[in-house]
Amino acid sequence: MKPIVRKVLAIMLVMSAAVVSAVVVSATPALADRPPARIAEDCANARPAMQGDYLYWVPDCRVDVISGTETYAAPKVVGQVALACNSSGGSTTVNASSTTSTSFSFGLDIGGKRKFGDLEGQVGAKLGWTWSWSQSRGWAVSVRIPGWSVGWIESRDAVRKLVVNIKADYDDGRGFAEKAKDQVIYAPNPNKDNLWVLRSRPLTDWEIKNRCGNGLAAGTGLKVTSVPTSEAPVAAEVSAQAATYGPDFRFWTKSQGRLLSTYSFKCMTVHNGASADGTRIVQNDCKPDRPKEQLWETVKRPDGPVPYVMYKNSKTKKCLDVSGNEQADGLPLELYTCVPTAPVQSWLTESVTAGMPPFYEGQPAFFLRNKKTAKCGSLDFYNGLEVEGSRLMQYPCHR
């Protein structure tokens, strides 16, 4: 006989890309145990079932929290996006709001509350029959948008990262036979504020043409458009083969003669504008007061049918090079006197399609692959992905 209520833990949580997706799955009995990730997914999306007048859920899941840490969920673009479709920029007020909510429902065994480890302590709420939490916040700020730039607000929900063990009953006569250990789930953290960040970056050449030139004419002043709130794609650790990539530490795009990182929104720059051979190449904020040390001319190389180019800095008239023995991962990029026959100064632009915040539409981007090393010009993966002034390196392209 089924209990009057045999309702499972139905978790509606803030998930990261590494967490199982919210897909309703069939509760077909299985003779063999399911993989742990499948069990966690099924418990997050349990199916209702009926036996006579009795409602219950399959699978029935028991959760024991092993550990919990405070963190933030993936960023969401909220409110309006401000575009400066001119060279002087302008000011505007960017408004945003965000709501974070979740709910838990726990089954009861004939009037007695089931024990679920330290879940109440980790989440910070008394659960009882049901528990729900919702929080809304608004934010408004007057911001300065530089010329040919875009500004927006990101919100990151305050959550707790919970490592849990799960026991699941799939109603196949085996009871709580299936187990999933060390699964990661996320729950709202009501004791901590969401993280609000004002961000801006230069518009790419493609955006200037397709956004400012399509109903947002250049030179007509600051324009404001809105985009829907959405979860941001996760940055690619390895160059995926999908149609549109997320921002990646090896992806570059063009912006007003500059090479713009799709990850940090900073520009490839000759450090301090120096002209000595061996001067390091860094990433710096893209600013009008240092244009020439951030401007790069492309010079075609006589390398046969493959379209290699040299990248010559507009201020120093010297070329993008790789330092040291030229072959090792993590070697810095540097400035050096242009040598037309040097393969280490030959770069191949390999096209990809990238989705950059805040719009995330697919637009042209590229790898910079060196002819001699076959590695790509990148941000410093270990020390300076978003650090102002950090050196640019070469790393494998991982395609």
Q: Could you name the key traits of this structure?
A:
3-stranded antiparallel beta sheet, 5-stranded antiparallel beta sheet, 3 helices
Number of helices: 3
Helix-strand topology string: HEEEEEEEHEEEEEHEEEEEEEEEEEEEE
User: Overall pLDDT, averaged?
Assistant: 75
Q: How many β strands by DSSP? A: 26
The global form is elongated
What is the share of helical residues?
under 10%
Determine the oligomeric state from the structure.
Answer: single chain
Radius of gyration: 26 Å
Largest sheet properties: 5 strands, antiparallel
Question: Pairing-aware structural class of the strands and helices?
Answer: mainly beta
> Could you tell me how far the N terminus lies from the C terminus, measured between alpha carbons in angstroms?
57 Å
User: Poorly predicted ranges (pLDDT <50, ≥5 residues)?
Assistant: 1-30, 104-120, 122-131, 215-243
Question: Hey, roughly how much beta strand do the residues contain?
Answer: 35-45%
What does this structure look like?
With 399 residues, the chain is mainly beta. 6% of the residues lie in helices and 43% in strands. The chain contains three helices and 26 strands. The strands form eleven sheets. Strands 4, 9, 12, 13 and 14 form a five-stranded antiparallel β-sheet that branches. Strands 3-10-11 form a three-stranded antiparallel β-sheet. A hairpin with a 2-residue loop joins strand 6 and strand 7 (112-113). It is elongated, with a radius of gyration of 26 Å. It starts with 35 loop residues before the first helix and ends with a strand. Residues 1-30, 104-120, 122-131 and 215-243 have low confidence and may be disordered.
